[in-house]
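user: can you give me the structure for this one chain? tokens are fine.
assistant: on it. calling the predictor now.
[tool input]
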Amino acid sequence: MDNKEAEGENHPLKNNEGMTVENNDTSGEKDVCIKKQSGLSRLSKIRTAFFFGALFLCLAVVFAFSFIIPCPVRPISQRTWSVHYNNSVGYPFLATEDVNQDKVQDVLFIFKTDNAGKSNVSCADEGFQQPCFFLSALSGTNGSTLWVRPVSDDDVLLVECGIHFLGGTDNVGCLVIRRSGFILAIDSTTGHALWEKPTGFAATSTVLKPVLKITDVDNDDVEDLMVFIFAENELQSAIFSGKNGNGIGQKWTISSEQPSGYYTHVTKSKAQYVLFYKGSSIAAYSISALCSHTAESEAKQLPTAKDSDWEAQRNLSAGFIPITTSSSSGKILYILNVPGRYYNNILIVKSEVSELLDGQKFQTLWSVNTTNILSKPALGYFKRDVFSIMMELEIGMNKKKVIIVDSNSGALQWDFELNLGTARENPAVLNTGDHRSTFLFWGVNYLDSNTSEWEENLFMFHPSHPNALLQLNNHTENIIQFSAALFERSRHACYVLMTGPNITEDLGTLTVSKRKLKEDINNGKVIWFGTEEVNTETIRDDFFRMRYSSH
């Protein structure tokens, strides 16, 4: 015993190992432990294999999308392009929309010619005599022809594009009304005819622009179209199906007076009214009433949408709502919608004075002298998120004044005088990323003493530099149409020009061109009319770096 104890003290580990072997002589528990370790090992290997397999699959997908499957190619837009048409005249219509679905706005226009250039399309394709009118779409990226088709060999009474769901398709479409008595719907994407139907209009009829889009009257799930015509000393309304062009109901006589135009107003309660104006008077009709009279039985199931404030002003004997202004002098030239805090207000632009009316109570909110107004006013933002109105007024001595007034008060915010020139195009507005707007207008710079002759220019103004204008590219050709737009969402601000002979002149060279604003800013000239010293190059750089907003 003493020897064993001594050995255990000298070799304690050895003694424990021996005791362990002796105590675990039963092998059942040892086998279970080994089996458990083996099962866990196999499970761990499966998990590892699954992890690496999933990792390999993810890498394969990333590799495929990165190198094998090509990314969509973003169209590269040319900074400027021009398309020329010989033996042609331009029609006063120009629109921009994404025709070929490449995220870039394209250009739609109408011209009259004896041929369609290189497109191998002729008037005879539709049985028309030469020359005839063609509706065409040009790519916004490079000016190439996307499609062109003959639409009429007599006068075009109305053309309008951007009509959604026309023909029951998901695309937008264009509408053309011919004097010969036909209404034609065209798919803007392809240029193909969706439908063509007779209108029943007399050859001496005039059509008011634009077409009024109304609720679905014939229950075919497509919005319908109301057209206002003046024929045989009667103002009439007619409704056509937006899906197939069929006439709905009968023409209804509204009045015996020929209006100068009309404007659609949406009230606080979302009721819609049509305001016909002539001279200094305005007569308003609810769209629901016009539909019920024109479509007769088809419109009886339509909900009646009228505004109590407006209906309280109705002249029961006359059958319409008269709208009067505080100043009865002057002829009404334009009516514009001006968004207010809670509802839309009505800007009535006369030849002598312009007034902003409350859109519910018809009270005059403010008025401003607009004697000899030259063009249709444009709405933009002089202050951040507060609407302003740009107007052009002739002031004599071959000069004009461009003014910007606050829509809330009518207070003058900015003005500038320049030579009148020959261009009578409406000013344009592009919204910028700082919640303000860039204003574009035409004129002649008489401050430039180095110019031996007057050159008509496009001017660019932004409220961030109230004492500066940027004089852009000059033009000497006759301008038929002018438009400004963002050709790509929130970027690529451009303007489009149609120049050459107009519809009343002899055939000549017609040009449709697009110019990127930044291209002209690079070559533009800063006009500074402040008193302090300033670095004009810095101002030009500010204009160049300006970002634009789609909203």
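assistant: here you go. Residues 372-551 form one domain. Helices lie at 2-10, 12-23, 28-68, 287-295, 308-311, 517-523, 536-544.
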